[in-house]
UniProtKB/TrEMBL annotation:
Pfam families: Maf. PANTHER family: 7-METHYL-GTP PYROPHOSPHATASE, BIFUNCTIONAL DTTP/UTP PYROPHOSPHATASE/METHYLTRANSFERASE PROTEIN-RELATED. The lineage of its organism: Eukaryota, Viridiplantae, Streptophyta, Embryophyta, Tracheophyta. One of its GO terms (molecular function) is nucleoside triphosphate diphosphatase activity. Signal peptide: none annotated. Keywords: Hydrolase. This is Maf DDB_G0281937 isoform X1.
Length: 204
């Protein structure tokens, strides 16, 4: 998509390369600030509540940093802060980023010939008006058998340790092993385009 004639600023509150890619594909210009929060300290019963709480906590952390540096007072144009979070649910258990290579190995092994549900949230905060909107989407991913050598290669590379459930749909080693996605691929990758666009328009 060509760049838009954008009358507002966007801050993407995420270090995720996939989210950067998706927001760029949507035609938006944006700056990046990562939220350094202790995600493990935030616990909720359902994956939907968890991803919403985490995305809101990321927004609050970034807003606090902006307030400390007085950047919030200097905003000249409407500025939207976009935060997001993703978890994977496997057999009813919520999976966040793997805590070790061993856990990542088990995660991927479990997906072989099976399925996993991905739940992703998006929260958009208008830093000028203070208004905030958010929502979540989910998708189901079904896999072919995943060979051990593919798992070993993914672990050796290490990047899957930084993604929810060790599940990186867009990885060239993973993509051929995906049988079906019920839902959208961008939701699985960490940022639903439809939901993001809706929330951006509502926030302006």
């Amino acid at each position: 998509m060509p760049p838009r004639n954008q009358s507002f600023e966007i801050i993407l509150g995420s270090a995720s390369m996939a989210r950067r890619q998706i927001l760029s594909e949507m035609g938006y210009d944006f700056t990046i600030m990562s939220a350094d929060i202790d995600e493990k300290s935030i616990r909720k019963e359902t994956p939907e509540d968890l991803v919403m709480a985490l995305a809101e906590a990321k927004a609050e952390a970034i807003m606090s940093r902006l307030a400390i540096t007085d950047n919030l007072k200097e905003l000249e144009r409407p500025t939207l802060l976009l935060t997001a979070d993703t978890v994977v649910v496997y057999k009813g258990i919520i999976r966040e980023k793997p805590s070790s290579r061993e856990e990542a190995h088990q995660f991927i092994k479990d997906y072989s010939g099976g399925s996993a549900r991905v739940v992703g949230s998006v929260v958009v905060t208008n830093l000028v008006t203070g208004s905030r909107g958010g929502g979540w989407e989910s998708a189901e991913v079904y896999f072919h058998a995943i060979p051990d050598d593919i798992i070993d290669s993914l672990l050796e590379e290490g990047i899957i340790l930084n993604v929810a459930g060790g599940l990186m749909l867009e990885h060239p080693l993973t993509l051929p092993l995906v049988d079906t996605v019920i839902g959208t691929c961008d939701c699985v990758m960490g940022l639903s385009k439809t939901l993001t666009e809706k929330l951006i328009q509502e926030a302006l």
